[in-house]
Amino acid sequence: MGFAVAATAVKPFLLIRANHSTALDLSSDRTGGSVSRSKKNFVFVVNPRGANGCTGREWKKLLPYLRTRLGEHCNIYESITSGPLHGVDITREAIKEGVDAVVAVGGDGTLHEVINGFFWEGQPVAALGQGLKPSTTLGVSDVLIPLGTASDFARTFSWRNDPNEAIERIQRGLKSKLDVGIITGQTGEHHFFINVADIHLSAKAGYYASKYKGFGNFCYVLGALRAFIGHESRNLKVKIDDGQWEVFHNVTAICIGNGKYFGGGMKITPTADPSSGKLEVVILQDFKWYDFVFKLHKLYNGSHISEKNVCLKR
Questions:
Q1: What mean pLDDT is predicted for residues 232-248?
Q2: Which SUPFAM superfamilies does the UniProt entry name for this protein (predicted)?
Q3: Which of 170, 206, 251, 291 is 20 to 30 A from 62, comparing alpha carbons?
């Protein structure tokens, strides 16, 4: 599914295209590579500052149990991130070494970095000596260990925020395919995402929410309310797939997802499917702060799409 958006002004302030999702195969058996093959090799990418520091504390308690459950069949390598985007570099290096899986330990931010680490200059990263053939399992839909503030992507699969259950999924070897959305910027650079990519107010809300992490999931509500201060809706031109450009007036936010939830449990793209090959687009028009407050329950249960100022595109 293709999606493009631009401002209606003479010089676009924003131009992003979400190309047809790229399916990552999580089901192939791997051989070869530069690391030991006597056991499976799993790299766990841990953001110790996630969930206001809770991720790091919980990981230390979880690691002995993880080694007990998986140590007989897997070599477990923990990689602690030291700052923003470090997870991208860790993931790329692990893939080049030919590990069997890279597992995100944390929330959606950690997961986002791991996803982008699977790609370089728009192409999948491959193990050294294996040419262009990817050789590493993406530890996301089947082996994400949710220890973040929201862990919204896990909600799409109805997983509880329980790391012990995640370890059981890893041990059972559950595998599937997952689509990855591609965003192409004005200069041609590629950025990758799963779950939900958002534009305008909701993107600002995510930034402000990071300043209220001490409030747990409620930080996203606080972030959204803060984002409304000084916010101005814009007229945007939108094109989906090979359709015509269509003008949407007074756009407050656009959310593009292959997962259902964002913002600590808001069911923003309620019928999205991570493996359908399609993205779901929700456009909020002329939303005021009081609309957000009084319709908040609808955002959480997915019934907001019935509102007259909400447009759903597939």
A1: 91
A2: NAD kinase/diacylglycerol kinase-like (SSF111331)
A3: 206
